[in-house]
């Protein structure tokens, strides 16, 4: 499990060490970690550090100091290094070390276009303009540089290998360390080497997109307060996924009730059912129109289909909403599912029936547009753009207002418990942005809820338990999408096969890397 902390918490943990005069030692540890990651990535890309063109972007603070010291070490390995100084007062000792290794410098304010060209022609750009001391987006010449550099490299069509590798020092400059907001100009990295602890802003919203892969370097910080954000990794998922016991039968494994689909949108029910079955539920009981029952049984003969009401069927969890449209029977079933006290995924059209006063066992799964509408009905105004810019804040707010667990979809999907526990998963691929993809996510989550043993073994699961299961479903969905995308575009109906593979490999301990 990865734990992430706000920038201020990391700075507070650094403070006693800085007060004790350990600042230079911490900076050397951070710089060494950054250098080692840069060396490894350049070697992987071009086979040799010798003769590699490296540009260090160095701001006025300690972030620039870290980057200059790392650059000095790369110069010592034969790389050709130039530092672009974005301020008149760079870290003095780091600059002296950099120059003593033969590094040359350019003052940004006098040569923005030249610096942008230099970056675009480099093998590696180290972004050390702003770290946790940054406030807001980049300004002035640094903002112009970010714009000009992005413009130059986005025009390249010949694949990522022809673009310079960008490695961010601690966090991409211009990204808010706590929220991941990046309203102004900012850099986008392939890899972020972060120090002491992962910052929450690297795992949420635009910051998660800008960070690329995240690597955390231990610099010997003291204790940190409880993390603000978690991310499940393969070992966590393997532990969470239930395995049938020798004494199990289909009912004890778990039955999922699905109230999805309508005469207008039958396909969503088929996709959700397929994904739930692939995730390993004991039985799917489907409730919906007869025409949809026939369609489901044509592709999933194992699903037990009926046209009845929620109170008449015995299940361990419910999934309601995908493809329900304006179907009145499905609306009633969604309301009954929410009121049943059983774990329930409330997706798509059913989200518009949500009222406050739910419990954490109800998991709402909106995208930003659906959350805009939901918050609006609860008396809060937030546009889709505002939610996309700061998903942590709005997912938590929706959980607080409804009492439910909230899964807010995106590149990094956030799941927030009403008690505050929050997860971010980012294994997905943009190929998953396709109609029907969310239906498969809801099927995976429904299956995890139905087969969740803690649901039966303990009276009330630990706070944040449902947010953790929702994060697990998100991760499986993302990994299944990434696996499918390895051979071409993702059609959501292909996902169930990949879900089975991902779960099988997780159980064997094989990791399918995210993109
Ligand atoms: N003190 C140490 O020895 C350690 C420092 N570390 C590094 O230090 C960083 C924090 O250093 P600082 O506190 O010096 O802060 P930064 O290096 O993030 O930069 C702060 C400077 O940037 C200016 N600034 C803020 N926002 C700006 C904006 N939007 N546009 C232009 N300029 C802006 C500020 O006025 C200030 O001069 C961490 O991110 C990390 O990289 C870590 O390596 C841990 C150890
Ligand atoms: N750019 C993206 N990168 C990664 N995953 C994405 C992206 N856009 C959407 N997704 C994922 O694809 C799914 C889309 O869900 P949703 O919008 O509900 O689709 P639908 O309702 O059509 O089934 C979600 O799991 C979401 O997180
Ligand atoms: K930076």
SSE topology sketch:
Layout: E1 2-5, H1 7-19, H2 23-46, E2 53-58, H3 62-76, E3 80-85, H4 92-100, E4 104-107, H5 112-120, E5 124-128, H6 140-154, E6 165-169, E7 191-195, E8 198-199, H7 205-211, E9 213-217, E10 229-231, H8 234-240, H9 250-253, E11 255-259, H10 267-279, E12 283-287, H11 290-299, E13 304-306, E14 317-320, H12 328-339, E15 344-346, E16 362-364, H13 368-377, H14 384-389, H15 391-402, E17 405-408, E18 413-416, E19 422-425, H16 437-450, H17 454-457, H18 465-485, H19 495-508
Parallel strand pairs: 1-8, 2-3, 2-5, 3-4, 5-6, 6-7, 7-9, 11-12, 11-14, 12-13, 14-15, 15-16, 16-17
Antiparallel strand pairs: 1-10, 17-18, 18-19
Helix pairs in contact: 2-3, 3-4, 5-6, 8-19, 10-11, 10-16, 10-19, 13-15, 16-18, 18-19
This protein binds ligand NAX, adenosine-5'-diphosphate (ADP) and potassium ion (K).
- Stated plainly, the CATH topology of the largest domain is called UDP-N-acetylmuramoyl-L-alanine:D-glutamate ligase
Instruction: Give the rounded overall mean pLDDT.
Output: 94
Gross CATH architecture of the largest domain: 3-Layer(aba) Sandwich
The residue ranges in which pLDDT falls below 50 over 5 or more consecutive positions are: none
Radius of gyration: 25 Å
Whole-number total of structural domains: 2
Overall helicity: 40-55%
Quaternary state of the chains: single chain
Task: Determine the N-to-C terminus distance.
Answer: 18 Å
Name the bound molecules: ligand NAX, adenosine-5'-diphosphate, potassium ion
Major β-sheet annotation: 9 strands, mixed
Total beta strand runs? 19
Structural class, from helix and strand content?
alpha/beta
- Strand order across the largest sheet: 13-12-11-14-15-16-17-18-19
Protein name: Bifunctional NAD(P)H-hydrate repair enzyme
InterPro entries: Carbohydrate_kinase_pred_CS (IPR017953), CARKD (IPR000631), Nnr (IPR030677), Ribokinase-like (IPR029056), YjeF_N_dom (IPR004443), YjeF_N_dom_sf (IPR036652)
Binding site for K(+): 63, 127, 173
Family: Belongs to the NnrE/AIBP family.
């Amino acid at each position: 499990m990865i734990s992430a902390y706000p920038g201020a918490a990391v700075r507070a943990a650094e403070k006693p060490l800085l007060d004790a005069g350990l600042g230079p030692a911490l900076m050397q540890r951070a710089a060494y970690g950054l250098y080692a990651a840069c060396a490894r990535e350049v070697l992987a890309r071009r086979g040799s550090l010798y003769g590699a063109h490296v540009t260090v972007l160095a701001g006025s603070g300690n972030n620039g100091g870290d980057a200059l010291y790392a650059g000095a070490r790369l110069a010592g390995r034969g790389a050709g290094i130039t530092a672009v100084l974005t301020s008149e007062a760079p870290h003095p000792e780091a600059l002296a070390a950099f120059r003593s290794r033969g590094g040359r410098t350019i003052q940004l304010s006098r040569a923005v276009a030249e610096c942008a060209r230099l970056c675009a022609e480099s093998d590696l750009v180290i972004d050390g303009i702003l770290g946790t001391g940054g406030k807001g987006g980049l300004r002035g010449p640094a903002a112009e540089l970010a714009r000009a550099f992005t413009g130059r490299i986005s025009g390249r069509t010949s694949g990522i290998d022809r673009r310079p590798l960008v490695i961010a020092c601690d966090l991409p400059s211009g990204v808010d360390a706590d929220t991941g907001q990046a309203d102004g100009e900012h850099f986008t990295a392939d890899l972020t080497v972060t120090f002491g602890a992962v910052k929450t802003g690297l795992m949420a919203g635009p910051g998660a997109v800008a960070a690329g892969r995240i690597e955390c370097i231990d610099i010997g910080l003291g204790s940190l307060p409880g993390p603000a954000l978690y991310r499940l990794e393969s070992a966590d998922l393997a532990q969470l996924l239930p395995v049938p016991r020798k004494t199990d039968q289909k009912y004890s494994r778990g039955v999922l009730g699905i109230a999805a689909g309508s005469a207008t949108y039958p396909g969503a029910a088929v996709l959700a059912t397929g994904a739930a079955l692939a995730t390993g539920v004991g039985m799917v009981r489907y409730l919906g129109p007869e025409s949809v029952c026939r369609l489901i049984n044509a592709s999933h003969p194992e699903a037990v289909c009926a046209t009845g009401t929620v109170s008449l069927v015995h299940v361990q969890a419910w999934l309601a909403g995908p493809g329900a449209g304006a179907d009145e029977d499905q609306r009633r079933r969604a309301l009954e599912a929410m009121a049943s006290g059983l774990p329930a995924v409330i997706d798509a059209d059913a989200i518009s029936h949500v009222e406050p006063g739910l419990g954490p066992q109800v998991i709402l799964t909106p995208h930003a547009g659906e959350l805009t509408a939901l918050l609006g009905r609860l008396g809060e105004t937030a546009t889709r753009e505002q939610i996309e810019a700061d998903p942590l804040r709005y997912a938590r707010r929706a959980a607080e207002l409804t009492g439910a667990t909230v899964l807010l979809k995106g590149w990094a999907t956030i799941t927030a418990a009403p008690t505050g526990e929050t997860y971010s998963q980012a294994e997905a691929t943009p190929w998953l942005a396709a109609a029907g993809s969310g239906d498969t996510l809801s099927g995976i989550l429904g299956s995890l809820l139905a087969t969740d043993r803690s649901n039966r073994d303990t009276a009330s699961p630990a706070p944040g338990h449902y947010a953790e299961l929702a994060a697990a479903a998100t991760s499986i969905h993302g990994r299944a999408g990434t696996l499918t995308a390895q051979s071409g575009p993702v059609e959501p109906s292909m996902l169930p096969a990949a879900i089975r593979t991902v779960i099988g490999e997780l159980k064997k301990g094989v990791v399918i890397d995210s993109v």
